[in-house]
């Protein structure tokens, strides 16, 4: 259920219109059902359902962009599957089928009175459309014929509507220029060149304006952003993991409603900076809300399956086994909605109005700088003396921080949280990662010097938002079946037992492909499989028990034999000693756990702030000792004693 600003039940399209939205983008899938009629999910939006949505939008005074995916399910750069009905057609017949499907669908929109102002021919068609995959980036004849067929259908049925093409990854140098030149070379008829732009992955807004301006001025086209978004929280609303979590965000904006407003405002400004050719921005997806809370995930699964309200149902697995498989489920986008999870519009939705009218609000803190640092085991942990505090007027200021002495209790590799408080009283937390000493040189590929690595084509070090950590990784893709690898000879490793680790993600790689992480020493060979599942789903493979002899040499390699169209990322390759990887003798920490439970049960309303601050400091020490991989028995005893003492020294608030 959606609500208006007062919390009353309301029609979503009327709420959108009331908040300054004037157009909605509706995706269309050809046949999102299996043979028994079960819907694939994601709203199961076929033509019939899309027309119904369009009628509701038109009734609220909104115009409509019809977004044809030319697939039975999601289409994006990683997948452009042919509709089931077109799978066996040759190229020429597919062109005809695409034209006829487009014309028939648009006629149904027109007959229903839907105000269609723009039609998108394909969705994020970087490499393919309607099952036709190009071998490289250049536009080819069949791709142009398919887009032209869709465009011709629009001209025939809705001659007043604009025709849009849609691409993504604008940050790659020359990409959009090559696409636009190819479309022009084949004489493709279209009006609008549309781009996706997500700050997590797609470079700077200045670059976005530049590449869109180049298309607009060179080819006389209108331009727009067809998709953008920002996270307002890192919490999960429905129990299905979100695409954007703590590791997926970047520093451009705070993760908040204010951050959403800033991001949307800036993207609109970037398109407006193109000039009159910049025609608009669509936010994707503002209203994909949870069907139930995260702690009721099993009940949610039933709803996702019954109503297709998750990103995919089990019915879609057979159609798209590589990308859906067993990963079907709920909304992976609910933390980027412009509505609260109860359906109430957030203030960020008002951005569509505010970009026209302006807005002023009382100055308030909207974010505090995230403090995260990684140190090698044995190095000092140096927390910043001051951090940046951001306000809703887009100003910032530096505030000094007093950090907990719990940092002094860090012992060994692990992840630690160290609390602190700014001079103005804001609570902050520093995330400290203590990494084991690593014998792989440039294992995260952040250093441009790749002299220690041996890469075979098409594997290459790239700056990419698809890295597991940092800004760089080794990536690879080919339109043909191929072999590729990354290897290094590691020397000077002290004799002992080690673990080799590597993190990967990838798509379009069936189980018949081979992906292997291997270590070879004078004492033997050890290996483990590397996983590719779906985009942005990272897996870390571990090869334990590697014995290094007196020569100190380890040959490491990641080897891939992949199918045509398979894409992958290799990152964070590490060789660490077995003890640092969890092989140390464990210490009984029950005493600390009990003491922390006692501290958590305290009724804080009864005690003074000063005595509670002492308790919080002791509890912070306890949490660090719990996280410490090399905490001693003495550490456990001392931390537990500190917490118990702080509980006993709590001072009651004096009654007045």
TrEMBL record:
Keywords: Glycosidase, Hydrolase. One of its GO terms (molecular function) is glucosidase activity. It catalyses: The enzyme specifically hydrolyzes (1->4)-beta-D-galactosidic linkages in type I arabinogalactans. InterPro entries: Big_4, GH, Glyco_hydro_53. It holds the Pfam family Glyco_hydro_53. The keyword Chaperone does not apply. It is an enzyme of class 3 (hydrolase). GO terms for biological process: pectin catabolic process. Residues 369-423 form the Bacterial Ig-like domain. Its EC number is 3.2.1.89. PANTHER family: ARABINOGALACTAN ENDO-BETA-1,4-GALACTANASE A (PTHR34983), ENDO-BETA-1,4-GALACTANASE (PTHR34983:SF2). Belongs to the glycosyl hydrolase 53 family. This is Arabinogalactan endo-beta-1,4-galactanase. It comes from Microbacterium kyungheense. The lineage of its organism: Bacteria, Bacillati, Actinomycetota, Actinomycetes, Micrococcales.
